[in-house]
Write a structure and sequence with these properties.
23 strands, 4-stranded antiparallel β-sheet, alpha+beta, 6-stranded mixed β-sheet, 664 residues, 16% strand
Length: 664
């Protein structure tokens, strides 16, 4: 590095009885001024002073290839900086320097047994990195280049580009094929998180509050392709659980983030107590210290931990999946409902309609996740697996198979399909929620060490990959098999990624089930509107095209199971009965006769009274918005609030008018 330095302690030595061994500082300044004039544009000087020791440090930065100037500086007592690389330059060498470069004659120091154990490359087909150690550095060509670098956009030019350039220069190849640039997580005010600003989030606090898997899943859901992410935080009162909002707090050199009710100051005056926050709950109002990088709380003190409601997203999902998996496992063991799980083949003719639907959706979602993860779209991958797990597996499929799990004849096949779907879900979720998935895997291993799993491509003769979910295929009936027994891996983290046959995908069946779901939701809404008791069965009539009528009839049993509704008629000639509630699904109209279910006259009177009240509120809101003085003088949020209220009331009026038409 072309930086030359000399140190002066003349004044310091004089004050302490020492002798001057260097030229005087004034003489040195004269020399430097002369050199700056003589070698104009080739040298620049800078001075530092350490008041604690009285040391003055003089730096000279010169251009390369200046031998005369270097000789003069050296004779004047300057020494060249012995370092040869700056931080980012040395970091640029990391992809190949860590593998032993530039030593091509021998491997870098390695524990070969540990390397083989961690990479599972003890004896791979292409040879292990330790095999040819005697003939040269085998580690470098084995591990260089890598596949992908995951980084933030902040250091693309500082580090990433430098790694590419030095890799091309030293190794004639780029160090990685892909660079995935992830978003940066900012604080709630849009600032980069920094320890000095006090706006960083303590992950331990978050894990204690939400769980490690919930944090991991939520952060993965943030990982879009472009936008940085704001993470607003609050402080949770340790006494009552009240959430205290943060605020920005200006000090001399920066802006900190602290609780909005903080008592005290930063920086903390000498001898002063550490700042605290005051709870905003009127019934509490207690003080407590708070989590901050700016100080360590006192031992035994009550501490308000950092929390963020955005992590509720991950925690709610983890709870949903955990409870659904527990329900599934309860139905895989022997109970009053029937026998425990037994592995066995499941053929296509044994599947019920809901089985075909859930397997089709599983195959579709697995294919989507392969695509998303291959493009590093982690946010899209989490959405796909979450929506399938929550909206389809938990909310629909588990409800659909409950009657079969209580039936001795159909229980075995239902258990096998249920476990196959749960097994695949655990594998798909493992990268995002590893701790929950490992716990569920070990519990499933106790219940079903051998499982009926999806049948994949037939492997070559005399080969079986137990962990690949390909199963024990190879028999003449393999083409009709859907699931076949296969042993499971010892741990979920070692289990293979699921390979779900794309032949399971049935777009027409998925559309048919989407219509079923819409119909059941509509029936449930009618029940809620008219306060029909959950145990009371209702009649359902559907006016549809002939092909849709066939779809409805094929899933008729699920109407009774999921909505306590009996499909009495379906087809193009169905007419709406008098006094029936109605709903529309686009390609079908549904009717539910209300006679005998409610007192029609009483309900009609109640709805008309409700309509009058709503119309009164609508007139009041319209009067306000028609008043120019109100619109011009009131705050914008107040005016917008009135507009939103009016829109909601108008929608409510439309719904009430529709009910009145149904009842008339």
């Amino acid at each position: 590095i072309p930086v030359w330095t000399t140190t002066f302690q003349s004044e310091y030595n004089k004050l302490h009885g020492g002798s001057d061994v260097n030229p005087s500082l004034g003489d040195m300044f004269d020399i430097d001024e002369h050199l700056a004039e003589k070698f104009k544009g080739q040298v620049r000087f800078q001075t530092e002073y350490d008041s604690a020791t009285g040391t003055t440090i003089r730096h000279a930065c010169i251009l390369d290839d200046s031998p005369e100037l270097e000789a003069i500086l050296e004779s004047a007592g300057y020494e060249q900086d012995p370092d040869v690389l700056d931080t980012w330059f040395s970091s640029a060498l990391w992809p190949h320097a860590t593998l032993g470069w530039p030593d091509l004659e021998q491997n870098p120091p390695l524990d070969e047994e540990e390397v083989a154990k961690q990479t599972q490359l003890a004896n791979p087909p292409g040879g292990s990195p330790g095999e040819n150690a005697a003939s040269g550095n085998s580690v470098l060509p084995y591990f260089y280049p890598g596949s992908v670098l995951i980084t933030s956009r902040d250091i693309i030019t500082l580090w990433v580009a430098r790694m590419v350039l030095t890799g091309l220069y030293n190794m004639d190849d780029v160090p990685f094929q892909h660079v995935h640039v992830h978003p940066k997580i900012l604080d709630g005010f849009g600032q980069t998180m920094s320890k000095s600003k006090g706006n960083g989030v303590d992950p331990v606090d978050l894990i204690e509050k939400y769980g490690a898997d919930a944090i991991r899943f939520t952060i993965a859901s943030f990982a879009g392709e472009t936008q940085d992410v704001r993470l607003p935080i609050s402080y949770e009162c340790p006494h009552c659980g009240e959430m205290i909002a943060p605020k920005q707090y200006k000090v001399a050199t920066s802006t900190l983030v602290v609780p909005s009710t903080m008592k005290g100051n930063f920086p903390i005056p000498q001898g002063a107590p550490k700042p605290t926050l005051v709870c905003t709950n009127k019934k509490c109002k207690q003080e407590s210290q708070f989590t901050t990088p700016l100080y360590d709380p006192d031992d035994g003190a009550a501490v308000a931990k950092m929390v963020s409601e955005r992590f509720e997203y991950g925690r709610n999902f983890c709870n949903k999946f955990w409870n659904a998996a527990r329900f599934a496992m309860m139905n895989l063991v022997e109970s009053d409902n029937g026998a425990g799980y037994t592995p066995g083949e499941v053929t296509e003719d044994q599947l019920q309609l809901e089985d075909r639907w859930i397997l089709s959706r599983l195959s579709t979602v697995a294919s989507e996740m392969d695509e998303y993860l291959g493009r590093y779209q982690f946010d899209a991958a989490t959405r796909a697996v979450r929506d399938f797990t929550w909206n389809e597996f938990c909310d629909w499929y588990l409800e659909m198979i409950k009657p079969r799990l209580r039936d001795a004849e159909s229980r075995a096949v239902a258990q096998r399909v249920l476990l196959a779907v749960l097994d695949s879900l655990i594998r798909l979720l493992q990268p995002f929620t590893p701790f929950i998935c490992e716990e569920l895997w070990q519990r499933l291993k106790e219940i079903a060490p051998e499982r009926s799993l999806p049948v994949g491509p037939v492997p070559p003769a005399n080969t079986v990959d137990d962990a690949s979910m390909s199963g024990k295929t190879g028999s003449t009936s393999a083409h009709s098999q859907i699931l076949t027994p296969s042993s499971s891996s010892e741990a979920c983290i070692n289990a293979s990624w699921p390979t779900i046959p794309t032949s399971w995908q049935d777009e027409a069946l998925e559309k048919r089930f989407a219509r079923l779901q819409d119909t059941i939701v509509a029936v449930r809404n009618v029940r809620a509107i008219y306060n029909i008791p959950p145990g009371t069965s209702v009649k359902l009539l559907m006016r549809t095209a002939p092909e849709v009528a066939g779809d409805m009839e094929s899933v008729a049993s699920q109407f009774e199971n999921l909505a306590k509704a009996v499909l009495e008629a379906t087809g193009a000639d169905v007419q709406r009965p008098n006094g029936a509630a109605s709903f529309s699904l686009g390609d079908a109209d549904g009717y539910i006769p209300l006679e005998g279910l409610i007192d029609t006259a009483e309900e009609l009177t109640r709805q008309k009274k409700k309509l009058a009240e709503v119309e009164k509120h609508i007139k009041g809101a319209e009067a306000k918005l028609n008043n120019e003085k109100f619109v011009n003088n009131a705050k914008e949020e107040v005016v917008n609030g009135v507009r939103d209220t009016l829109a909601n009331q108008q929608n409510q009026r439309e719904r009430i008018e529709e009910i009145i038409r149904d009842l008339s």
